[in-house]
Every structure is written in C-alpha cells, then in structure tokens.
Amino acid sequence: MKSEQLITRRESIKKLLLLWSSLSLGGASLISLPSIEPANASANASRFLVDGVGRTQGYSVKALTRKTFDAAGGMGKFVSRGDVVAIKPNISWARAPQLAANTNPEVLEAVIQLCQEAGAKKVRIVDHTIHGAKRCFAINGAGMAAKNTGADLVHPRSSLMRDMKMGGNRLDVWPVYTPVVEADTLINLPVAKVHGLSGLTLGMKNWIGAVGGRRNALHQDIHQTIVDLAHFFKPDVTLIDATRMMVRNGPSGGSLSDVAMMDRLILSNDPVAADARAARLFDLEPESVGFIQIGHQQGLGLYDTAISRHLEVAV
Amino acid sequence: MKIKHLVWLRRCSQAFFLLLFVFFVVESRLPQDVYLDYTQLVNGEQEIRLQQPVTIFFQADPLVWLTSLISGHVLIKGFGWALAVLVLTLVFGRVFCGFICPFGALHHLFSYVRPALKGKNLARANSSTGSRRVKYFILILLLTAAFAGVNSAGIMDPISLFFRSLALAVLPGAGIGLKEMFDFMAHSDIKALNYLSYTAEVLVSPVFGYDYQAFKTGWLIGTIFLLILFMNRVRPRFWCRTLCPLGALLGLCSRFSILGLSKDIDRCTQCGKCTQSCAGAAQPVPGEAWQKSECLMCFNCHNTCPEGAVAFKWRGPKGQAGPDMGRRAVLGGLTAGVSLPFLSRLDGQIHKVSDAQLIRPPGSLPEKAFLTLCQRCGQCMKACPTNVINPALSEAGLAGFWTPNLIMTQGYCEYTCTLCGSVCPTGAIKTITIREKVETPVSIGSAYFDRGRCLPWSGNGPCIVCEEHCPTSPKAIYFFEDMVKGPDNTRVKVKLPQVDLKRCVGCGICENKCVVKGRPAIRVIAAGETRSMRNRILL
User: Fold this and answer.
1) B399, CA 20 to 30 Å: which among B179, B321, B349, B519?
2) 8 Å CB contact between A110 and A255
3) B191 and chain A: CB distance < 8 Å anywhere?
C-alpha cells in the first residue's frame, strides 16, 4: 500500500474534512488508512555506473541530468506510475547554491521533473537539515526547486522521527526521519564535498541527514556508522552532484574559493561504486577513504572499477 | 454620530488593533515560504527581511520615542507615528488607551466581558483611589533614569510588555503544548491519530513553525502577564489605571484636550451606572470632579446614563481636575529615577567588568549605548530563527534585565542571518548587511575549548563536530593529528581541534552542536566581541 502521511497545507484541510466526515459516517474502526512500510526495493542485480560530463561552455545542468538518467535506461526504471518518491538531497546548510555546500538546486529540480514525468504520484524532498530548515530551504535553492515543480518540501520535526532497528555493526536502534523510508522509491542525491573527519562526504554519508537523535555522536566512529546507515537506507539509485564541488573547508565552505567547477554527475545503483567514482574526482583512491573501503568489505557494493556497465554521457 | 455608535466604533477599533497586534507578533518570524530565486544569486547573499511592518506599534508608542530621545539621543525610525498619537491625545484625550492600545483592549476584554464584580461592588472597584498615582511615579522614574542613561522603559511600557508576554511566554507555551500533543499522536499506534497529527501540525506551522521556541525566564514573563490579567477581576483595567507609564504620559498630555465631560447634577439620580461602567475610574458621576487625565475615553458613562446627565462635549466645562500625581509620587519618582543608574552601575558592568555570558546579538551597540535604547520588547528574540536570543536574567546586571542575550545551548547565531537588527524598533541592534557581518567581521564573542571534556583532547576518541560546523572560510576551528593518552594506557590517534581567534566570530554553532550537552566542551564567551574596545582579545 502507498504511504501518504506527509501532505501540504492545502491538502491538509481537504483531508482533515474527509477524515472527520468518514469518522462520523463509518466509525473509527471501519476506516482503513494507509499503513507505513519501508519500501526499499531490492538492489538491482545489474549494476551500472554512469558518468555525466558537462563539456560545453554554459551547458544545461538539467539536460545533463536527463541524459545521465537516460543512459541508465531512464527514470522509468526506478519510478513506476503512481509511486511516492522520496528524494534525499544534501540541503543541510543555509548557503547560497554557488558555494556548493548543498546539492545544486538545478539538479534537484531536474530529478524531480524526471520523477514526475515517470508518473510519480508524489515527490517529496526530505532532509534533516543542520542549519534551521527554514533558512536552508530559503537560501540554498531547495525551496525554489520545490515551488517550481510542485514537489513536497518536508520540514523536519520531532514528530517525524521514529526509533527503528538498524541492526548495524555500531548502530542498533536509532531515530529515523520517517519520510525517507515511507516511500516506494528512494533517490539519494548528495553533493560531493570534502569533510574534516571522514575525508569526503558523498552518497553514503548523506544518510546522516536521514536520521535524528544524537547525530553528532556518530563522529566517534564515523566510517562504520556511515556504512551502517548506508546498509539501512538502500536507495534505488544514487546521483552524486559534482557540478560544483567543494574542495576545501568542507563540509560547510562559505567562500567561492572553496569551490571547483567539475561539471560532473555520477549515477549508479551501487552506493559504493558511486562514492568510489566520486572519490577519484578528489584525486583519492577509493580504498583510502574509510567508509568506502568498509562498505566494500562489508558487502554493501563494489568499487567503480568492478562495474561492467560503465557508461559516459556528455552535453 | 450617536453615542451608542461611538461606543461600538470603540469596540471595533479595540478588536481591530488587538488582532493586528497579535498578527504582528505572530508574523515576527522568518516566513515559511520565502524562497530566494537561486538563479539570481550570483554575487553574495540576499538579505532576508520580514514582510510585515512588525514594529509599527513601537513606532506609535510615545514612551518609546521619548525615552530613546532623552536617553540615547536618537530619533527612532518611524517616530512620526508617536507624534501623531501625542497630537491625537492633545485634541481628544487618552483615546489611544481607549481605542488603539492593544494591551488596553485586552484588559478591557478581561474586565468587562462577564465582569467578576456587579452593582455596588463594581462601583466601588471603579471608584477613584490614590493608587492611580503609582503610574506617575513609574513614569517619572523611567524618564529620569532614561535621562541619566539607563533606559528601563521597556520593562513597563505596555507595548513592550505585551509583545514580550505574547512572544516569549504565551505563544511558546501554546507551542510546547501542541508539540507534545503532536509527538504523542504521531507515535501512537492508532493510524487515525497519526494522520490527524501530521495534518494538524502542517496547519499550525505558519504560527508555531516546526521547531518550538523556548525562552529562559519565560515562566516569569508568563506569570507576571497572568497576574496583570487577573487583576482585572479585582479592579477593571487595573494595569491602565495603576501601573501603565504610557497611560500616565498620555494622561499628562490630555489635560489640554478639548473634548470634555459635561455633567448635569440636576438630572442625576445617583443610580451609579456611570461609575460602574467607567473603565478609567475617572469619577464620571455628577457632583464629583471628572478626572480628565484618568479618563480612557471609552464613552461608557455617556452611553450608559439613562438620564442624559453626563455627556461629552467640545470644550468641556471648566473646573475639571488636572492630573493628580501627588507630591510623593513626583519626588519618589525623581529619587528612584536618579538612584537607578547609580544602582545599576554598582556591579561595575559598564566600566570595570564584563560578564562572560553577556553575548549580544550581532550589530548591537556598545553596552553603554545599548542600555540607552533597548526596550526589552523581545522582538529580536521572537524573530531569531534559531531561538538563540533569550532575555537576560543577571548577565547584564540590574540595568539589563530581560535585554537580549545569546545562549548557545539554545541555538546559535547563523553566519549569514541579520534578521535581529532589522526588527529592532529602536536601533539598539543596528541593521547590518550580510556583507558587513561576514567581511568586517562582526564578532559577538569567541570560542574556547574545555580540554577536560573534549573527546579528542581527553583521549576519549575522535569527534571534531565543532570543526565540521564552523561557518567561516577558512574555518576558525582547525585541527592537527596527534597521539594522545587514552584509557588503560592506550595511545589514541586523534584530530585535536583548536580555535583561531583571528577568525572566530563567536557564532556559537560549535557550542550548540557539541556532543557534550549542558556544559559543552567548546563554549563561547563575550570576550573578543567587536562592539567593545575593552572586551577585545587580540592586539
């Protein structure tokens, strides 16, 4: 059954009226409401890795995003008609888009549109932000992207956190930001940045933004907890945004001099391969990045070099 | 216009301004749907400002205008509204109290909608007593102290008090209650409740947002507010008659007003209805002298008199009582007003010491000038998106009670946010731009490590959450790798964080996000703030 727990203000009133009328008609025991089910599709057996490269001056980021997905068989491969899609970008910092602390809003907007074209019933943008959500969404472009596309931008709040069993090496039970798991399709949409402690922040580390609780304690065993989280949140596909890339002073940045224009997108259904590929953009061997290496070791995925379907597209 | 209609006009006007005031209180926060167009963000950052003129009630408050002028020698933005109110008072008397003041309207509501007292008891409660002089005492105290450099008007100013009470006590109180209810419903096993909670939370979010505000000493602000409201059941409009310094100021101005109450003692049957309905305890009954400066211009007496014995007329009769201040209230007020600045300097806060925890919002004036302007209204605290600004208890000394103070365990100062200064009604916090804040840089304090608690420094393992969040570029918190002694004679390889004081702006996100709660391992103190020459650290 589809989950429809999160709704916009406009819909709320309608649904509230509907709910009350049905309550008065049928009695509480008779209504059937959608149940919550973690709907992580099982990992696709055929792994792929797509490099999207923006070669021309002033290329369209949206066109690049579309072409990258097309190379992998189109968004229809991940999103079925009537799906509820959760997109997990990194929109945690109240920083302007050009500072590359957040997922490029143009990429975000393009992915939302692709989902909508593939027939998604509802697209939700979900991230448990670090800075206050209101200022994040106002400044980093996520709010505008949601407004332009009609996607739901979910504001993080305590009532949406629920303790869940992770069963990881380090994390057993941890509060999870429920809209991330209450979806038919989950798309991971991180931005590539450097990070003081973990070295890099890419796709797997993006899941720290999908949990609540004492997140700052995760630093004490950062690589293993990242892998634990990546085991729990199995996305249908990961698109790493490296159009702009933060190469120093990460993960917050704050200056244009911290940003390198890379004009790259990396798409894969293997979370380890996507991160491994992105690590090379920073001139790092994947084996040298703790969480990539542990992820590989613990069977989460393969290194990029082991992926047979490795494609490249360019605009 | 018939007098009946005038009374209804008053009620409508009171309701309108009360609702408008509440609306502005609610609107004093970052709107939920301000989305900057990212395609326009090419150079620098765009300022985010509130869309509503949320400070207009402060601009229309003559007490705010007057105390800012005599204390800080500043004409505040929009003071023309206050002058308009004064002119209105000179012509019509205290119509501000009767028609406009939202706090007065609330008291009117509590006093006269199902009043607690009836008949003779109500008439007795509405009789004029010497307690009315207290407000003149307060007014003179505040003005004298303001003149001598300590502007405490905001503690008693009705607009400030009402704003503070709603913003820091009533709304957060309701918000906490809702949050607990939503959390309970969301985590219940009954699906219908989950559904309702999600829906309802979205519906109330324009008012309460999703992260609920809490304020230090909010309980005290709330208790005082409730007490003042309760007093209306003992004496109607108790606040307006007895305590309100703005009412006293307008009372003094009203003595020249041309609208007067004429009384016809021959028609009067001594039924007492005028006194029972009198909001200001201004002695409307024929045979006694009408207290012009106490009259709130509610027009109830005129409306209620069955015999037509009292009526408002242009150029009312002579022989009306002037403002009854009482010699003791005047002398007492002067004495207390002169004493207050001395008393408040006794702790040495301005000249000698500085409380480490007295961290002011970015753009605040130097402490001495700050205390001449701050109204303690709570506007900056309400608007702050991270809830870091709280009313001070003792950090700023006697003169700074309830002035804004940043508590980094509550929130932190967002690096590119300049909202607090833009909503300050008097300019105690200057309006600064993001560029000014970042490039100057405007520093509000500085961070230091408590190495005994810090996980890496104490050998308890890796962390550097502080470094991750540090917003400056390059980061003011940097680290170096080293081996430290850990438990059981182990040696642990960790990244050890340090603060670069040249770069630290004291924003406090490090303290806020530190994994050590309560008293974090990295803390911000006021030392190093740019606004104070004395408080700087580096050469």
Assistant:
1) B519
2) no
3) yes
Q: How far is CA A49 from the centre of its chain?
A: 17
Mutation site for B-interface testing, chosen from A136, A226, A252 by largest number of B Cβ within 10 Å: A252
Characterize the bridge pairing of strands A84-89 and B259-263.
Answer: unpaired
The whole-number pLDDT of residue A90 equals 97
Neighboring chain B residues of A97 at a CB cutoff of 8 Å? 38, 41
Report the distance separating Cα A47 and Cα A186, nearest Å. Answer: 17
Task: Tell me if residue B269 falls in helix, strand or coil.
Answer: coil
Nearest to B461 among A94, A158, A220 (CB): A220
Nearest CB among A12, A19, A144 relative to B38 is that of A144
| Tokens encoding A120 | 């998604």
Inter-residue contact B96 to B296 (CB < 8 Å): no
Residue B348's CB is within 10 A of a number of other CB atoms, namely 10
Measured N-to-C along each axis, helices A61-71 and A105-117 cross at an angle, to the nearest 10 degrees, of: 50
A197 with B469: Cβ contact below 8 A? no
Compute the count of residue pairs across chains A and B with CB atoms less than 8 Å apart: 168
- pLDDT value, residue B318: 64
Nearest CA-CA distance, residue A114 and chain B, Å: 20
Residue with tokens 């008007």: B153
| pLDDT score for A35 | 40
Other C-beta atoms within 10 Å of A17: how many?
A: 10
Are the beta carbons of B82 and B64 closer than 8 angstroms? yes
Residue B326 in tokens = 């009482």
Question: For B233-292, how does the pLDDT look when each residue is reduced to its tens digit (9 = 90+)?
Answer: 999 999 999 999 999 999 999 988 888 899 999 999 999 999 999 999 999 999 888 998
CB contact under 8 A, A132 and B475: no
| Residue pointed to by tokens 């080293």 | B482
Angle at B216 between CA B214 and CA B220, to 5 degrees: 105
Q: What element of type H or E holds A185? A: strand A185-189
Q: Out of B41, B197, B479, name the one closest to residue A97 (CB).
A: B41
Return all residues near B407 (Cβ < 8 A) that are at least 6 apart.
B216, B388, B390
- Residues B113-123 have pLDDT tens digits of 888 888 889 99
Per the document, the length of chain A is 315
Nearby residues of B331 by Cβ (< 8 Å), 6 or more positions away: none
Residues B291-311 have pLDDT tens digits of 989 999 999 999 999 999 999
Residue ranges in chain A modelled with pLDDT below 50? 1-4, 23, 25-44
Q: Which residues in chain A have their CB less than 8 angstroms from residue B51's CB?
A: none
Give whole-number Cα distances, A135 to A30, A92, A139, A141, B37, in Å. Answer: 42, 10, 6, 10, 13
- Closest in A9, A134, A139 to B203, CB measured: A9
Residue A18 confidence (pLDDT): 61
- Measure Cα distances from B444 to A116, B74, B357, B419, B503 in Å: 46, 24, 11, 15, 12
Identify the CATH class of A38-314. Answer: alpha beta
Question: Which pLDDT score, from 0 to 100, does residue A17 have?
Answer: 61
Which residues lie closer than 8 Å to A27 by C-beta, 6 or more apart? none
* CB atoms near residue B483 (< 10 Å): 12
Half-sphere exposure of B176 (CA within 13 A, CB side): 10
Which structure tokens are listed for B128? 């004029």
> Mean pLDDT across the stretch B106-114?
92
Residue of A5, A156, A252 with shortest CB distance to B470: A252
What stretches of B224-356 adopt beta strand conformation (E)?
Answer: 259-263, 310-314
The helix/strand/coil state of B495 is: strand
Residues in chain B with CB shorter than 8 Å from the CB of A222 are 462
Q: Write out the residue limits of the CATH 3.40.50.11440 domain(s) in chain A.
A: 38-314
Listed in sequence order, the DSSP H helices in A73-199 are 105-117, 133-139, 142-149, 178-181
Task: Please give the average per-residue pLDDT across B305-324, as a whole number.
Answer: 80
